[in-house]
Amino acid sequence: MSWRELALIPALVALPLSPPQPDLDIHVLSNRADLVSGGDALVRVTGPARVRVELNGADVTSRFAPGPDGALTGLVDGLSPGENVLTVRPPRGRAERLTITDHPSGGPVFSGPQVGPWQCQTAENGLGPALDDRCDAAPVRSEITLGNGVKATLERGTVNRGIYDVLVPANWNHKLVWVFGAGTGQQYRQGVSRGLTMPEAQEAAAKGFAVASSTMTDNSLHSNDVTSAETVMMVKEHVVETYGEIRYTIGRGGSGGALQQYLVADAYPGLLDGLLPTQDWPDQIVGAYREFGDCAALVRAMDASPLWTDSGDRTAVFGHGGTGVCATSAGRAPDYMKPDDGTSCAGEASYDPARNPGGVRCTLQDFMISIYGARPQGCAGVPCARRPWDNVGVQYGLTALRDGRISPEQFVDLNQRIGGFDIDMTWTPSRTEADVEAVGIAHRTGRVVFGRGLAQVPILVVRGTDNNDYHYPWRSLVLRNRLDRANGHHRNQVLWTNGSDGSPLDVMDRWLAAVEADRRPIPLPAKVVRHRPAEAVDACWISGTKVIDQAACDQAYPHKADTRVAAGEGPTSDLLKCRLKPLRRGDYGGVAFTGEQWARLRSAFPSGVCDYSRPGVGQTDPATGRLRPPQPWLTFTTGPGGTPLGPPPSSRSL
């Protein structure tokens, strides 16, 4: 080494080191990167302050600006349908790349093939003619003044073939309330929006919350909880891209609006952060569809027999607080089960047994054919969906028989007469056997709420006390029993009976704000339980006075049961198809049947009776035989039954 080279060594050592470059990361703020829709996405880039951002090779750096923390945020529009590549290149070092998958604003994203024909109603909703066959239309915005004098932006538009409404007050707190609509219906059309005039929406907006709803989350129009979840996701993405990030989302709604909250939060956790259900049902397929079918069969059988003239005897079998629940439910059964339910669900294209036997069928399962799949045998030669309703082996009135409230002859008479319904909801002397594939899909995909996903959300239920109304209070306890089984507790569920402790929205807001502020690396369910406000405790209101003594509440407001629990099923009330066991005299607690009655009972149950000591068909993992929670975040683009989406995509270094 020469002296010149030696002389350079100290100078080289003394050179200052370059500051380390912060790690690059690309994150889509408005949705998962693989589920965005509408051609744009709000994106955050962390790392060096000076970078070049490219979308599919084109420079889009100018769309990004630094925020208070130095990270770059920008709305990337011009996404092409399908996969798009967003690349971030620092001044030196490796570039980072994220694949963003865009879907049409008219859907679908994960719900699978859309049902049709579909009638656009953009004009009826004040949006002018539809622009395409997905019923897209340009949004309309107006400025309104809320009751408290605050200005707000009211926006109406189309997403996922439905009509959405968004109300954003000028003092928006970056929290969102989603209002789900009540009722039941399968309409092959956009529907006319109810708007955001209901008291829950106005209360929320006056307190600084943004409020949203959609005809696709109005159960009276579209009883499909998968498209409901998909619509919530898509509209939330639009809100973030248009108005700013959302801190958390609270669900509100009663009856059909309550069951949607449970179904969406359990199967697609993260879309809703807190639930405020009223008149709640644990889910749609068991809470409504199954019991409505039971009641239709029970009322028919009892009306045809001289043994069932006493309303007390009927009530004992129904399990409710009177005959009113089954009377109403029997009348509602066609809304779910009958292909020509009287609503002309698809207009002139609707099914009619004489005029149009190949027409669109108006049943719940046909409206969700992308979830349940088609019956290979069809329906009298016409394509139709698999059906999950089953009553094979169900011993209606079993609890009443054991308790001595009905006679052995009444029990035998009823179960001989009960029969079932064929695929067109025509009564048959034989029991109804479900399509087993549909039963498995309903359990595996979360159409029957299991409760594992619900552990991540606070639930505050305001409920009534009428056991003779089909929103009877037992339904809240069914959900509680499922939470206990799934999570070992129900400490995230609060029941307020016959009253409320101030505004439920205010309590939920405090609950979620405390969870949000907890930055510790502990599981979200633990945070939800830890930060439950002091006033969020089970309570009832007796003569206007709040009571937290649950024994006193149960005495003042007793609860009953449902038709399947009254037939011997357990308190989670969630079997669609039971496993069978042989008929045995010893299983009836000393009830004495005559030889002739026993022969008739054997004839009524040729394949056996329900064995409620075992999980139902489709509820267990075939490999272990144990109860299997549904997998969250399924996509049905691959076909009925769904496949898991897996973890959200993340950026990677090149």
Q: Strands across the major sheet, in which order?
A: 10-11-12-14-13-15-16-19-20-21-22
Biggest beta-sheet profile = 11 strands, mixed
Straight-line N-to-C gap: 39 Å
> How many alpha or pi helices?
17
Query: Mean pLDDT, as a whole number?
Result: 95
The amount of helix comes to: 25-40%
Number of strands: 27
Radius of gyration equals 28 Å
Strand content: 15-25%
- Gross geometry: globular
Uncertain regions spanning at least 5 consecutive residues: 1-18
Derived structural class: alpha/beta
Can you walk me through this structure?
The longest helix has 19 residues, at 225-243. An 11-stranded mixed beta sheet has the order 10-11-12-14-13-15-16-19-20-21-22, sandwiched between helices. Strands 2, 4, 5, 8, 9 and 27 form a 6-stranded mixed beta sheet that branches. A 4-stranded antiparallel beta sheet has the order 1-3-7-6, with helices on one face. α4 (256-267) links the parallel β15 (248-254) and β16 (274-278). The two termini are 39 Å apart. With 654 residues, the chain is an alpha/beta fold.
